[in-house]
Design brief:
Rossmann fold, P-loop_NTPase, elongated, disordered N terminus, alpha/beta, RecA_ATP-bd, DNA_repair_RadA, Ribosomal Protein S5, domain 2, DNA repair
């Protein structure tokens, strides 16, 4: 008789970022070179040599006969969230909301649960917290006026208990805060580990698809801003949202990263207040400081976040210094692109800043990384350097190349339409920008020299 293989299955160690497996624990993943991402995982089961056919759960039907009513999006009661989700949350969808600690994820979802419970949505809402006690969540609900009889609250960290709450309440919306704190008794490892997070998410996804129950999961993020846990977590869910914001600013941005039911590049705007989080349907006013008098060192541009045009004010301060190495300080802008604009102004615009300190920032805490803001940065620096303010009714849009040329950007017409709605009459745009609204007098500039004519002092004849 052949000898039996009595050697037990050895535990495997898997990278949480890339999924690479190694035989023993190491501090750095050999595949993706990430540190501290190797965790112990359950040994993989041997693959079956042959799979027998089984009875399908539901018979296959022609696609034209599939019912659409059960898959139509239901409004959450918050228009900015519906905008990012693509009209609302789809029954049976699993949404992962990630964000840094203290950004307001729990406050936002508590408001979502309250709006769902108080609206015409099917069924009550169930909010399960694994990080706080029920009393702590009730205190927050009292502060934000989110108490409702159809809003049920449970404080559980065991997956079986969470499923028991679902059977008892039969909610129309389930919120789990957070997926890293819930533990499955059938999986190995500690809560928040690779095996536990995968098992919990898989069980909740199966629950959502089986009952048509929309589920919202709160996820932690790493120091790099990525969703904590195994990379497969983002593939299991239907929608991945990132809730972003600066602690020193009240602005909060909800950004769609993945969406199987709508656009994946949409952005929603919120404002953090003492009484909770409120929607900001027209956020352009947060990023601007309209003044009656012209101010030097200020330029207004139009950014596009997702599909939403937003006006943003860029400010620059150029001042002489006695230091050998002048300072360069940037806030809300890409420091590398600001340095490029200073070099372009020096080379092609004769705007010398080598012996000057340069400070550049945006208004309202907005982070601007789009190349369409290059021209605004360049003109703001030139305006401060020459002490010549730009016209208060002017917006500038365009990417500046290293040769000093102004390059085209996408959606110029949509950007200028938003500027016209807010009262701007003039614009500097790249050449061949397509059809533009008639409400704005657009001037095409081909290079940085033509744009600088606005701020250079006129020569006396």
């Amino acid at each position: 008789m052949p000898a039996k293989n009595t050697r037990a299955a050895r535990p495997a160690f898997r990278c949480a970022d890339c999924g690479h497996e190694v035989a023993k624990w190491v501090g750095r993943c050999p595949n993706c070179q990430a540190w501290g991402t190797i965790d112990e995982a359950a040994p993989a089961r041997p693959a079956l040599a042959k799979v027998t056919a089984g009875a399908p759960s539901t018979p296959a039907r022609p696609i034209a006969e599939v019912d659409l009513d059960s898959a139509r999006a239901v409004s959450t009661g918050i228009s900015e969230l519906d905008r990012v989700l693509g009209g609302g949350i789809v029954p049976g969808a699993v949404v992962l909301l990630a964000g840094e600690p203290g950004v307001g994820k729990s406050t936002l979802l508590l408001e979502v649960a309250h709006r769902w419970a108080s609206g015409a949505s099917p069924g009550p809402s169930l909010y399960v917290t694994g990080e706080e006690s029920a009393g702590q969540v009730r205190l927050r609900a009292e502060r934000t006026d989110s108490v409702h009889p159809q809003l049920f609250l449970g404080a559980e960290s065991d997956l079986s208990a969470v499923l028991g709450h679902v059977d008892a309440v039969r909610p129309g919306l389930l919120i789990v805060d957070s997926v890293q704190t819930v533990q499955s008794p059938e999986a190995e490892g500690s809560p928040g580990g690779v095996t536990q997070v995968r098992a919990v998410t898989t069980a909740l996804v199966a629950l959502a698809k089986e009952r048509g129950l929309p589920v919202v999961l709160v996820g932690h993020v790493t120091k790099d801003g990525a969703v904590a846990g195994p990379r497969v977590l983002e593939h299991l869910v239907d929608v991945v949202l990132h809730f972003e914001g600066d602690r020193h600013s009240s602005l909060r941005m909800l950004r769609g990263v993945k969406n199987r039911f709508g656009p994946a590049d949409e952005v929603g705007c919120f404002e953090q207040r003492d009484d909770g989080i409120t929607e900001v349907p027209d956020p352009s006013g947060l990023f601007m400081n309209r003044q009656e008098q012209q101010v030097e060192g200020t330029a207004v541009t139009v950014m596009v976040e997702g599909k939403r045009p937003l006006l943003s004010e860029v400010q620059a301060l150029v001042t002489p210094t006695q230091m050998t190495m002048p300072r360069r300080a940037v806030s809300g802008l890409d420091s590398a692109r600001v340095s490029m604009m200073l070099a372009v102004l020096d080379k092609h615009g004769s705007i010398r800043t080598g012996d000057q300190e340069v400070f550049a920032a945006t208004v309202g805490g907005m982070k601007v990384t789009e190349p369409a803001a290059d021209l605004a940065v360049a003109l703001a620096v030139a305006s401060s350097r020459l002490s010549r303010p730009l016209p208060s009714d002017l917006v500038v849009v365009g990417e500046v190349g290293l040769a000093g040329d102004i390059r085209r950007v996408t959606g110029v017409g949509r950007r200028l339409a938003e500027a016209a709605r807010l009262g701007f009459d003039r614009a500097l745009v790249p050449p061949d920008s397509g059809p533009l609204p008639k409400e704005v007098r657009a001037t095409e500039v081909r290079n940085i020299g033509e744009a600088l004519r606005l701020v250079r002092p006129r020569r006396k004849s």
